[in-house]
């Protein structure tokens, strides 16, 4: 039939049918689809590769009949040139849907899904650190689509961590695991962390001398919470985060023992740290006002870098004052050689060895599960070295106090007290 606006207005869907097509005699392929509900829309029908295709053109109330004929003519022209407009529209719609889904999957959501669906099978310590490291490293991209994170962006972030090689390497490992998991699930198409170059972690061997240890001890005297943490690190040899998060319930009532649970130990292994009299004295000097030892409230210490920079400045000031008091040029005084808070742990380990402590005992003090406590030996060696650790840390505590009080010359050590000695 020849379609006109009046004809179209009078069209109706036959009884018992859900819709009916009425084709135009004027323009080949143009039809009006009339539904049982009364809606009327234009469409263009054609055959491509032996299959019938239809392209919706719009409501007859939305576009004119002339415009519908022009659109149908254009579509048939494309078909004659070898195109498949309906197929192309279907592909484009699918791509748009995929993009919309991809855009809605932000990096923050992907990390959270990884935590809930995959990391549940890993140790709580690993899961917490992996999530934290990625959230901190890519904080400015958390609300962007996870798919938008490319290799270039990853390399830029890791390069910005060049002064923290170990952290950059850890972030690269966590990111590779995250996107590898997401790729297997079909959530992303690529893994931007694959084969990303990361600088090898520099193996540190910095050990503070007795004189340097004394300088650190005195410099933190008026640094509040940070100062107490640093001194406790010196006396116990434990890890920074473990000491900073110490809660009173982990400490025995008589302050002689610290029971570190597996949930807070970096390696996931619970350990008991005997507290020397010097460490006990430090704890007694703290005002007990809450759950945590160094804060009162249960929260984590922040500002490590700023506090360390201030500490280095105080050490330099003390050196310059000593030079001035001795009649020397304070401007000629050298800064203390570069060091990190973690070097205190290595210093304690070295100091214990100087005191004649057995390697097995030193590793037990540090809660190491490598070295002499790894492999078959770690499986069958169940001695906890409790008494040996107590004797070793007591001797170390005496040595530290002797050094900071000027009662021991650099290089000298306090004789190791043997079991049974008073």
Molecular structure report:
This protein has 422 residues and is of the alpha+beta class. It contains 16 helices and six strands. The longest helix is centred in the last third of the chain and has 22 residues, at 304-325. It has three domains: 5-96, Double Stranded RNA Binding Domain, CATH 3.30.160.390; 107-185, DNA polymerase, domain 1 (Orthogonal Bundle); 210-404, Intergrase catalytic core (hpI Integrase, Chain A), CATH 1.10.443.10. The protein is elongated, with a radius of gyration of 36 Å. 25% of the residues are buried. The strands form two sheets. It has a four-stranded antiparallel beta sheet. The chain has a two-stranded antiparallel ribbon with strand order 5-6. It is 47% helix and 9% strand. It has helices at residues 5-10, 65-80, 85-104, 107-117, 124-137, 151-159, 165-185, 210-219, 224-236, 240-244, 277-284, 304-325, 343-354, 359-366, 375-380, 386-404, and strands at 19-23, 30-35, 40-48, 51-59, 257-260, 271-274.
């Amino acid at each position: 039939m020849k379609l006109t606006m009046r004809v179209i207005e009078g069209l109706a869907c036959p009884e018992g049918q859900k819709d009916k097509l009425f084709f135009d005699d004027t323009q080949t392929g143009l039809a009006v689809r009339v539904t049982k509900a009364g809606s009327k829309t234009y469409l263009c029908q054609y055959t491509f590769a032996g299959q019938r295709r239809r392209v919706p053109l719009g409501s007859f109330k939305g576009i004119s009949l002339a415009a519908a004929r022009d659109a149908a003519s254009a579509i048939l022209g494309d078909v004659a040139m070898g195109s498949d407009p309906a197929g192309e529209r279907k592909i484009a719609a699918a791509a748009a849907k995929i993009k919309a889904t991809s855009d809605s999957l932000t990096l923050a959501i992907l990390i959270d899904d990884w935590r809930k669906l995959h990391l549940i099978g890993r140790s709580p310590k690993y899961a917490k650190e992996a999530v934290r490291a990625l959230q901190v490293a890519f904080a400015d991209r958390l609300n962007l689509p996870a798919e938008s994170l490319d290799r270039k962006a990853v390399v830029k972030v890791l390069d910005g961590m060049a002064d923290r090689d170990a952290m950059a390497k850890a972030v690269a490992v966590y990111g590779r695991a995250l996107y590898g998991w997401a790729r297997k699930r079909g959530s992303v198409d690529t893994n931007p962390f694959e084969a990303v170059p990361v600088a090898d972690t520099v193996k540190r061997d910095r050990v503070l001398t007795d004189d340097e240890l004394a300088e650190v001890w005195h410099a933190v005297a008026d640094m509040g919470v940070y100062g107490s943490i640093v001194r406790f690190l010196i006396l116990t040899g434990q890890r920074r985060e473990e000491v900073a998060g110490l809660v009173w319930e982990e400490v025995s009532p008589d302050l002689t023992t610290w029971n570190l649970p597996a949930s807070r130990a970096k390696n996931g292994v619970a350990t008991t740290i005997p507290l020397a009299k010097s460490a006990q004295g430090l704890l007694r000097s703290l005002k007990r006002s809450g759950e945590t030892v160094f804060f009162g409230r249960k929260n984590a210490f922040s500002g490590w870098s700023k506090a360390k920079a201030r500490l280095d400045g105080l050490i330099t000031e003390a050196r310059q004052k000593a030079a001035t008091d001795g009649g020397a040029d304070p401007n000629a005084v050298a800064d203390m050689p570069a060091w990190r808070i973690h070097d205190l742990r290595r210093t304690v380990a070295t100091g214990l060895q100087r005191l004649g402590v057995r390697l097995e005992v030193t590793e037990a003090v540090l809660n190491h599960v490598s070295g002499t406590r790894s492999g078959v030996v770690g499986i069958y060696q169940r001695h906890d070295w409790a008494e040996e650790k107590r004797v070793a840390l007591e001797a170390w505590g005496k040595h530290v106090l002797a050094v900071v009080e000027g009662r021991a010359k650099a290089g000298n050590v306090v004789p190791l007290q043997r079991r049974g000695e008073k």
